[in-house]
Amino acid sequence: MRHCIDYRKLNVTSEHRLAMLRNLTIALIEHGSIMTTVPKAKEARRFAERLVTIAKRAAAAPADQPALRLRYYRQLISRLNNRQAAEKLIAEIAPRYRERAGGYTRILRAGYRLGDRAPKALFQFV
Q1: What is the CATH number of domain 14-125?
Q2: The whole model's pTM is what?
């Protein structure tokens, strides 16, 4: 049983895992869909959907409170380390999901990788 196990380690160090999730999410934001392995996609989904929720809060911030929008923008930059991706997330992606409560991404299985038979997945925004 997997009680109290929070995330997949993906057989890498914690710094490597965080960098990998950041890179996968930045690629997803830039391209709209990416091909990766199923376990990486499942972990990146958690990371990406939290960022979309923060971006939705930034996009919905009232015009008379620029400090609130700036706060969420800075949270995105601190998690992504990429200003262009944070701006695109707020300007283009968050408004698409204004009425959606969650589930901004989908994972479609796409067969197996030739070299090691790892299960591949197409990871994309809904």
Answers
A1: 3.90.1030.10
A2: 0.91
